[in-house]
Amino acid sequence: MLRNDDELALAKRFEAVHIDTKSATQVFDLIRKRMNHTEAHPHFMSVLHHCLLMPHKRSGNTVQYWLLLDRIVQQMVLQNDKGHDPDATPLENFNVKNVVRMLVNENEVKQWKEQAETMRKEHHELQQKFDKKEPAAGGADVPPPPAQHQAGQHGSWGPPSAPGPSRRAPVSAPSAQLRDSPPSSPASGGHDAPAPSPASPRRTPPSPGAHGPGDPPPPGGLLGSSVKKKNIPQPSNALKSFNWNKLAENKLEGTVWMDVDDAKVFKVLDLQDIEKTFSAYQRQQDFFMVNNSKQKEAEDETGSTRKVKELSIIDGRRAQNCNILLSRLKLSNEEMKRAILTMDEQEDLPKDMLEQMLKFVPEKSDVDLLEEHKHELERMAKPDRFFYEMSRINHYQQRLQSLYFKKKFAERVAELKPKVEALTKASKEVLHSRNLKQLLEVVLAFGNYMNKGQRGNAYGFKHRQDDLQCVPEAAKVNMTELEKDITNLRSGLKSVESELEFQKKRPQEAGDKFVSVVSQFIAVASFSFSDVEDSLAEAKELFTRAVKHFGEDPSKMQPDEFFGIFDQFLQSFSEAQQENENIRKRKEEEERRAKMEAQLKEQREKERKARKAKANGEDDGGEFDDLVSALRSGEVFDKDLSKMKRNRKRINSQTTDSGRERPVTKLNF
User: Fold this and answer.
1) Distance CA 303, CA 297 (A)
2) Per-residue CA distances from 157 to 132, 136, 139, 143, 456 (Å)
3) Which among 392, 406, 411 has a CA at the least distance from the CA of 514?
């Protein structure tokens, strides 16, 4: 009675007809009504979200989790102002006021942490500015601005490097030894600089082409005693990169390269022709073709040429493919950069385009070359400029991979779930199908009856369409591929989480929404992936039971093989059913046709007999009438009765002929 009174009071208070406290739906609607448009609504939604993540299976310590949550809420509701609880089973050392006070302190700590994070970011920015003012250490290449033509560029501390004729000579860190170092090798080919002594502690900054483009100087700053310093002529203009994997100098011993001397080759090479052929400045020419295409020498005289200089450093085929990709994207470099920083909130980058962009991620060698020519940014070709702009984004490749994984995650989960569900349902169907069991009993009986010898007297054999609807789909599931897809999904999720942790630790640029967007995605994706993993574990367990149930070895039997047997059996069974149905229909049709023919034959016989009987009846009636007429006339008493019969036949024939003739009436006008 008290419970009913309380429910009626609640209903009256909230203007509802009645609230059934045993109904979860009605109670939830009531709470939602109270929490709507309040400041506590986000926390209410957070409680619901965390309840979704709590264990929900019937095994293990699931009940204890929910019991703990129930008791905590009870303490929050039942504790009075003095901290006492009328319930006999309270939680030990649990005081609501203390917890609330701790939450208030936690908010204060959170504010202090935010201030500390802001100060840390400011300190990091100042540190970056400070580092930019320091000279590059270790012989790093620092290209000068276009207006400068001196040999190098020095930082805020230390003297500038010695001048030389090179336009883009590298600059080394300031040190006491560098003050006495000789000038770097000339940039123009034709004059070789003297090689330094191997024992000299001083280090000459390497020229840009001395060790391949973008390669660092030898470790330690000293060349090995067995390796002679190469004197390589330098081109006057930038050349295309020559792709190779450079062999470390400490690994040259015992190789063919110890006996190779390329210095002799430079004496016979036409360096000017090589520089002209492999120049990084591509010349695009449009000619007016003459009638005879074979006369190549006359093309320059008969046609006009239009030359456009572009700086192209990237490999030609790769640059061409990248140019095709950029033309399909139809976005500027700034728009693509903004889309990547904001995790494509405007949906400008389709999934297939992101997949192609991952194939054109700038490599370290590309970045080093582009950095050397960044002062010529306006003259760069479209692919080169795209590579340069994208390389300016911190962790560009990881961001791109995270964005692609985010866009493909829902699609991949949607592809995996039907396979797992088909495996689960098919295992349940073959385990619990009564019709299949009855069918197997019939087949077993037939087999034991028909087989003799060792194949007969069987108690079972290894291996109703309506009860096994998911078997055809399960027959397509390959467990190895399914587990591989799950593993790839797990590793991809971990990679995104790792990148999220990295981005959280560094200061965020303006417009960078990676942390906020990916944090929300990880929360949802982790729950979805956990659900798929639980479903797969359940499917594996059911599949193992099903395989053992039919006398097979789970370690040797895969789902596609196991359910493929059932699928083939069901198809054969369906075909046999259809064949039997066709036979039954043909038999029924033949029986119906035979019955109709018999009925038709019987009906015709009846009609024939009826016509015959009718004809006999008319003849008898006529003779009787003739006899009465003869009695009246007295002819019957004559001895010659044949005359009377002849007269009767004549009358009948006349009557018949008159009935066949068409009466004609003659009209006289």
Assistant:
1) 11
2) 12, 11, 16, 18, 98
3) 406
The DSSP result for 215-261, as a single string, is: PPPPGGG---TTSPPP-----SS-B------PPPGGG-TTSGGGG--
Q: Are 394 and 514 in contact (CB under 8 A)?
A: no
Amino acid at residue number 588: E
CA distances from 129 to 122, 124, 155, 447 (A): 11, 9, 13, 87
CA-closest candidate to residue 142, choices 131, 153, 128: 153
CB-count burial class (<10 Å; 0-12, 13-18, 19+) for 24:
exposed
Q: What is 63-104 written as a DSSP string?
A: HHHHHHHHHHHHHHHH--TTS---SSSPPTT--HHHHHHHHH
For 82-141, the pLDDT digits (tens) are 556 555 455 556 665 666 566 667 667 777 888 888 888 888 888 888 877 765 444 444
Rounded to 5 degrees, what are φ and ψ at 536? Answer: -65, -40
Q: At what angle do helices 514-549 and 479-505 cross, to 10 degrees?
A: 160
* 208, two tokens: 């840009």
Whole-angstrom Cα distance, residue 21 to residue 7? 7
Angstrom distances, CA of residue 642 to CA of 254, 448, 625, 639: 150, 88, 16, 9
What's the rounded Cα separation, in Å, for the pair 332 and 362? Answer: 17
CB 163 within 8 A of CB 184: no
Q: What pLDDT shows up at residue 80?
A: 65
Residue ranges for the chain with pLDDT beneath 50: 88, 136-225, 283-308, 453-464, 658-662, 664-669
**Residue 171: Cβ-neighbour burial (10 angstroms; 0-12, 13-18, 19+):** buried
Are 497 and 605 in contact by the 8 Å Cβ rule? The answer is no
**Backbone phi and psi for residue 559, each to the nearest 5 degrees, phi listed first:** -60, -40
- Residue 257 in contact with residue 247, Cβ under 8 Å? yes
For the record, the structure tokens of 166 come out as 């090179």
Average pLDDT, the chain: 71
Rounded to 10 deg, the angle between the 333-341 and 396-432 helix axes is 50
Dihedral sign for Cα atoms in the order 508, 514, 520, 525: negative
Phi, psi of 237 (to 5 degrees): -125, 160
pTM of structure:
0.44
Q: Is the dihedral of CA 136, 137, 140, 144 positive or negative?
A: positive
Among candidate residues 140, 198, 187, the one with its CA nearest the CA of residue 164: 187
The whole-angstrom separation of Cα 366 and Cα 377 is 14
**Is the C-alpha dihedral spanning 431, 436, 442, 444 positive or negative?**
negative
Asked whether the CA dihedral 569, 574, 578, 580 is positive or negative, the reply is positive
Distance CA 531, CA 480 (A): 19
The two structure tokens encoding residue 9: 């009071």
Chain position carrying tokens 């270790």: 138
Please compute, for residue 112, the number of CA atoms within 13 A of its CA located in the half-sphere on the CB side: 6
**In sequence order, which residues have a C-beta less than 8 Å from that of residue 392 and are 6 or more positions away?**
337
Nearest to 242 by CA among 263, 211, 221, 273: 211
Residue 425 to residue 431: CA distance in whole angstroms: 10
Name the E strands within 268-333.
281-284, 308-311
Length of the chain: 669
> What is the three-class DSSP state of 279?
strand
